Input
Amino acid sequence: MNSKVLTLTVFMAVAFTAWSEKPKNEKGKLAVKNGDFTDLSGLQEMPNSWYAGLPNGWSGLLSDSSNVWNDGTGNIIANVSTMSQASPKFVAFTQEVGMVSASSEVTLTFEVSEPWRNMNFELGAAIFDGITEVPLAKGDFNKPGTYSVKADIVPSGTRVKIGFWSPMGTPGIDNVKIESKPLK
Output
């Protein structure tokens, strides 16, 4: 047998064994890490209740700008506009949240705030295939409130990634959650 095929076969067997040995309650469980943005580790405190850097568990544009804000009530909000961009190259503020073990309905829920009053904004949100980065469901929002984006059918074995971006204005997000329900 070709050594490359043998190596790949052994790798796949080890990967499947590691996945299959997870406790049943962990298989297919999707979870957002630091969805309330209260884990400020690794962020640099700035004046006026702002923090610079990327929130723990998240990926996006790294800038020394005002990325996370404490609204004065102890609530922490992520400023999507500084950690994403729509052009010239699209970069979303993202997080990989796990893999579904059965075909499932996946729902992303989040709060949109507008800490900078009287400013128009646009916020995009999506559930992506974590490997191909093709959107499975997406939505556009321009008012504060609680919203959901739902992917009706996510095939078994799909790695799931969530993402946010802001082509205009400075929307904030908070309390980001993900839920999956196996299809019957």
Remarks:
- The first strand starts at residue 44 and ends at 45.
- The CA atoms of residues 25 and 175 lie 23 Å apart.
- The domain at 31-182 is CATH 2.60.120.260 (Jelly Rolls).
- The radius of gyration is 18 Å.
